[in-house]
Amino acid sequence: MPIIINLDTVLERRGMKSYELAEAINITTANLSILKTGKAKAVRFSTLEAICKVLECQPGDILEYIDED
Amino acid sequence: MKSINTPLQPLKFFLNFIFIIVIISVGLNITGILFVPFFPESKFLAELLGVPFFEWKFAIVALIISSIILHLGFIYSLYVFKKLVVSLFDSPLFSHFQILSLKLLGQLIILLIILKSIFNVFSNVVFEKSESTGIHLFSFDSKLMALCTGLFFIYLSYIFKKAKDLRDENELTV
């Protein structure tokens, strides 16, 4: 998929662990792992909003489009 | 996604009962057909194949073998159907097994109808019967209706596959 999730980078920048983020945005660590590994087919706006709020960032910091052609 | 709930348990029992009855009746039918060559004069046994008497041995053997294949095919289709219904009750819906079973059932129905039509034509030619072999378009027992049922099952398997894809997609929405 040409959409890349840069959650790991943002988490590292904030010095936050995955499980802490999962707790803060109220999703399971399994679901967060699906998101981080790029297996997710879709992201709810509410999840994205919660991530941006906790990590104090913009959606563009987490999602990146890479042209595969 | 959860399976259909158990208040429909009597239907499962009914299906098992029907399956056993069909196996017994088809078994008796096959036994009867196997005995036909030994009693060519017997009116009762001859009527099992729908022919009055036998002259051409090769044709009779071919008819008997194809008749047995058709009967076994029918039992197998019923078995697949039974397994499918049990799976709809007991397993989660839109499983890989259900998709494959629906497709297989549709293909089996179509294949059996085609084989049955060939069998009928062959049997009419061999025994010079004057019965019409035409397709009755507007009857529930017509071959066309059975063909449509087969196609419906294949279409249903396609719908199940789509539903499975949607479910998987939904589960992967974070």
UniProtKB/TrEMBL annotation, chain A:
GO terms for molecular function: DNA binding. Residues 12-62 form the HTH cro/C1-type domain. It comes from Gillisia hiemivivida. CDD domains: HTH_XRE. This is Helix-turn-helix transcriptional regulator. It comes from the Bacteria. InterPro entries: Cro/C1-type_HTH, Lambda_DNA-bd_dom_sf. SMART domains: HTH_XRE (SM00530).
UniProtKB/TrEMBL annotation, chain B:
Coiled coil: none annotated. Keywords: Membrane, Transmembrane, Transmembrane helix. InterPro entries: DUF2975 (IPR021354). The keyword Amino-acid biosynthesis does not apply. It comes from the Bacteria. The keyword Magnesium does not apply. The chain crosses the membrane at residues 12-38, 58-81, 102-122, 142-160. This is DUF2975 domain-containing protein.
